[in-house]
Amino acid sequence: MSRRRGGVMSERLKFELADELGVGDVARRQGFGEVSSRNCGNLVRLAIERAERAF
Q1: pLDDT exceeding 90 applies to what percent of the chain?
Q2: At 9, is the pLDDT very low, low, confident or very high (cuts 50, 70, 90)?
Q3: In the chain, pLDDT over 70 holds for what percent of residues?
Q4: DSSP class of 49
Q5: Alpha carbon distance 50, 29 (integer Å)
Q6: How far apart are CA 8 and CA 55, in angstroms?
Q7: Where are the domains of the chain?
Q8: Segments in 1-55 forming alpha helices (H)
Q9: Mean pLDDT across the chain, nearest whole number?
Q10: 14 and 27 in contact (C-beta within 8 Å)?
Q11: Rounded CA separation 36/8 (Å)
């Protein structure tokens, strides 16, 4: 049984962060599956940093 209930981040935020990392074009053209694991990890790191600053 899967526990996935959809994404936590909005699509807008994902692409905004991807643009910051310079991989927004790849994500838009080919999807996030084609973004390297390192850049996906960096994307998550940026999202966490933003969330921590928001509180």
Answers
A1: 80
A2: confident
A3: 89
A4: H
A5: 25
A6: 17
A7: 11-54
A8: 11-21, 24-30, 37-54
A9: 89
A10: yes
A11: 20
Contacts of 14 (CB under 8 A, 6+ apart): 7, 27, 32, 43
The pair of three-digit structure tokens given for residue 48, joined into one six-digit string: 């966490």
- The pLDDT-based confidence of 3 (bands split at 50, 70, 90) is low
| Rg over CA atoms, the chain | 12
> What's the whole-model pTM score?
0.79
Please list, in sequence order, all residues whose beta carbon lies within 8 angstroms of the beta carbon of residue 31, skipping any fewer than 6 positions away: none
Q: Could you say which DSSP state residue 11 is in?
A: H
Q: Please state, in angstroms and rounded to a whole number, the distance separating the CA atoms of residues 32 and 3.
A: 21
Token duo for residue 49: 């940093």
